[in-house]
What we know:
The protein is of the alpha/beta class. Helix content is 32%, strand content 23%. The strands form two sheets. Strands 6-7-8-3-9-10-12-11 form an eight-stranded mixed sheet, sandwiched between helices. A four-stranded antiparallel sheet has the order 2-1-4-5, with helices on one face.
Amino acid sequence: MQLLEIKNLQMDFGVGANALxxxxxxxxxxxxxxxxxxxxESGCGKSITAQSIARLVPAPPANYxxxxxxxxxxxxxxxxxxxxxxxRGGVVGYIFQEPGASLNPVFRIGAxxxxxxxxxxxxxxNNAEVVRLLKLVGIPAPESRMKNYPFEMSGxxxxxxxxxxALASEPKLxxxxxxxxxxxxxxxxxxxxxxxxxxxxxxxxMLLITHNLGIVGDMADRVAVMYAGQIxxxxxxxxxLCRPFHPYTRALMNSVPKLRAETGRLCAIPGNVPRLGNFPxxxxxxxxxxxxxPECSEKIPELIEAQSGRWVRCPFWAASKSA
Length: 323
């Protein structure tokens, strides 16, 4: 049994004629100890999908229209508020973007970590456990650092505190939503090394949201590429990076600067991700796709298994692969 199974998840914002579909038929699995990366441009629905796992997107304004989110075999969409409180942190932990905005500025970090412990492991809600967690994430002098306020710490240290809070209740699945976005390159590498080490030591599964394909190659077992609320390609990381099938995946990879290439104009994907409620007919990437055909605008393509373990939402994937 998979640790996480998302089956045909559909989520709107608003109701009735004003409903805007933000997540449209997303299906994704994560096995125990597996790392899956969710990639795509800003506005594709990556964070909304991840937050839906523990129903962190409040309803309203969100409306979970259909599908299932099975966490350890139990559908979180059918859970009561009390049951949800138990799995939030207890089964799935979150690391959000910009730790400075996630930490409470008026409480010391030790008190904030202790609050996480009180919810799921009250017997461990003490200073000794806080110190142990801070040591686990590589914060020096944890006995004194636990007395600091967030503004007294660097961005990298704040992110380590967020990781310590996420690990406090020993979750089976860690969701890291662009955990290195606000950090400089050196600190980014340190945080990624820390996440990789902790995952191996603690045996967690991880859903890592990123737009950095370098991180994908370094961290992921499998990759799901998302566009306009849909998964357009799903494959083992090494295979996808070597041979992307979907035109959108190819465009993402072509837009990455090449270190050894001659200096010149960067490749960019024309246009923008369509806004909610303004999706084009048929394939949602067709208006930006260099390989689009007239029939691409006639109906939404299905996510098909092009090869064993490789799924793609494009009937012309073979032509895209050889282009």
